[in-house]
Amino acid sequence: MAGEAPELSAQERAGRPFPVSWDQFHRDCRALTWRLNEVGPFHAVIAITRGGLVPAAIVARELGLRVIDTVCIASYDHDKQGELQVLKGISDQAMKLGGGTGKGLLIVDDLVDTGKTGKLVREMLPDAHFATVYAKPKGRPLVDTFITEVSQDTWIFFPWDTALSYHPPLRDGAA
Ligand SMILES: O=P(O)(O)OC[C@H]1O[C@H](OP(=O)(O)OP(=O)(O)O)[C@H](O)[C@@H]1O
Ligand code: HPA
Ligand SMILES: [Mg+2]
């Protein structure tokens, strides 16, 4: 409609870019594991796909955990958040390991932003421990352990979503 401001995507609202390299991500996951090692032991890891798969693999390797389950949730279409859809729930076997409430289970995701995804998984496993590598202020209260907080107006670019490319020198007008 004329005069109406165009709807901004989450990435456009979060104008500040925060690119993360594979090296940095691996280091941050290891730092997360150091903290989690003080809290465990855990029976199993529950990765929130897809972003939680990479940190879950690193954390599981460091903590010696071999049981890894997934909860598959879709919400962002690239950078626009829509309705949350649970495409696959937690397996009966993992549920049993957590005594039905998630006690002794470790939920892992790459980040919390608005907290909507984390809130949904917490409702499924209220007694589980929820860990993310990065946290924005809105989602932070939902997380038990995280490594780096970034501002709400920051957009984190993960290494699996990006590629190295040419960047013009500053004096040629690069931002
Ligand atoms: O706190 P929220 O505002 O809910 O956002 C955080 C979630 O958004 C991203 O996942 P996304 O839905 O983009 O799916 P993906 O992990 O498959 O990339 C991210 O991996 C978190 O799971
Ligand atoms: O900052 C972010 N980066 C990547 N994916 C995301 N999904 C929600 N917030 C983000
Ligand atoms: Mg995700």
Summary tags:
175 residues, alpha/beta, Rossmann fold, two-stranded parallel ribbon, 5 helices, 8 strands, 27% helix, binds 1-O-pyrophosphono-5-O-phosphono-alpha-D-ribofuranose, binds hypoxanthine, binds magnesium ion
Enter the CATH topology name of the domain at 41-150.
Rossmann fold
Task: Say which molecules are bound, naming each kind only once.
Answer: 1-O-pyrophosphono-5-O-phosphono-alpha-D-ribofuranose, hypoxanthine, magnesium ion
Number of helices: 5
Corresponding CATH architecture of the domain at 41-150: 3-Layer(aba) Sandwich
- Quaternary organization: single chain
- Taking strands numbered 1, 2, ... along the chain, how are they ordered across the largest sheet? 4-3-2-5-6-7
Shape: globular
Kindly report how far apart the N and C termini lie.
Answer: 32 Å
Give a count of the beta strands, DSSP E runs of length 2 or more: 8
Under the CATH scheme, which class of the domain at 41-150?
Alpha Beta
Largest sheet: 6 strands, mixed
Beta-strand content: 25-35%
Secondary-structure content class: alpha/beta
Helicity range: 25-40%
Using only C-alpha atoms, the radius of gyration works out to: 18 Å
Contiguous uncertain segments of 5+ residues? none
Binding site for GMP: 113-117, 155-156
Binding site for Mg(2+): 110
Membrane topology: Peripheral membrane protein
Domain Phosphoribosyltransferase: 21-166
What does this structure look like?
Belongs to the purine/pyrimidine phosphoribosyltransferase family. XGPT subfamily. Helix 2 packs across helix 3. The chain is 27% helix and 29% strand. The model has no long low-confidence stretch (mean pLDDT 92). It has 5 helices and 8 strands, in the order αβαβαββαβαβββ. The protein has a domain at 41-150: Rossmann fold (3-Layer(aba) Sandwich), CATH 3.40.50.2020. It has 175 residues and is an alpha/beta fold. The strands form 2 sheets. Strands 4-3-2-5-6-7 form a 6-stranded mixed β-sheet, with helices on both faces. It has a two-stranded parallel ribbon with strand order 1-8. Residues 10, 76, 111, 113, 155-156, 158 line the site of hypoxanthine.
